[in-house]
Amino acid sequence: MKKLLVALLFVTMSFTLFGCGKTNEENVPSDEVVSEENTEDVSEENTENVSEDSSESVVASDNGSVTILSDVWNTYAEDEKFAVMGGDFENMVDGAPGAFDVTNVENMSGTFQIPADIAGNIDEGASLVHAMNANTFTGAALHLADVSAMEAFTTSLKDGIMGTQWMCGFPDTLIIFTVNNEYVVYAYGNAEVIDNFKNKVTEVYGENAVLVAEESLAG
């Protein structure tokens, strides 16, 4: 039943109704701890925690998009976490980041607000999305096939998300990072949730993470 519920939520999200409802205090992380019983779906390599004692930044190119989001998610304290899903309808992960099919441009555009004109430069991607309201938190990590187009890619991504006509309600804030000049990591949602995510990315990837955009999406 749990997997069926997750599947139904992903179908709903793909039609952009998943994000309906303006974010409010009920959507901000609370003391409720999300179960991680299904995180076995992410490989051991992709769920390796970042050592708290390490003084060196993680080099993302040694890993992958799922690992990037997993490393960030694993720094959250239990009372900071909220119910999440990863991947897409064909590659669902409950309670952790998951890979999504980068060849399905329509799905990426509709679910993760990635403009179709830049989707062809993505050769690997992963997502982490609030399980009840995508407007509260939607995050993704994307690996670019052509890193020389990084600046044009992030500009198009920012413009595409900012120009989205939200069905009902809207996210508060958008942030976009480049990581090791190979990956784009972005998230939009509740301002407090996004600010915490931004701090986590910086904590994990240090100087390898460059914040290239931080924009208000609030009407």
How is this structure best described in words?
43% of the residues are buried. About 26% of the residues have low confidence. Strands 1, 2, 3, 4, 5, 6, 7 and 8 form an eight-stranded antiparallel sheet that branches. The chain is of the alpha+beta class. The chain contains six helices and eight strands.
Look at the structure and give the mean pLDDT: 79
Question: What is the quaternary state of this protein?
Answer: single chain
What profile does the largest beta sheet have? Answer: 8 strands, antiparallel
What would you call the structural class?
alpha+beta
Helix content: 25-40%
> What are the segments in which pLDDT stays under 50 over at least 5 consecutive residues?
5-9, 11-19, 21-62
Order of helices and strands: HHEEEHHEEHEEHE
**β content, as a range?**
15-25%
Helix count, per DSSP?
6
Rg for CA atoms: 16 Å
Shape field? globular
- End-to-end distance: 38 Å
Total strand count, please? 8
Which descriptors would you attach to this protein?
6 helices; eight-stranded antiparallel β-sheet; 28% helix; alpha+beta; 219 residues
Question: What is this structure, in a nutshell?
Answer:
This protein has helices at 2-14, 65-73, 105-112, 116-119, 150-162, 191-205; strands at residues 84-86, 93-94, 98-99, 122-130, 137-144, 173-179, 183-189, 209-216. The chain has 219 residues and is α+β, with helices and mostly antiparallel strands. Strands 1, 2, 3, 4, 5, 6, 7 and 8 form an eight-stranded antiparallel beta sheet that branches.
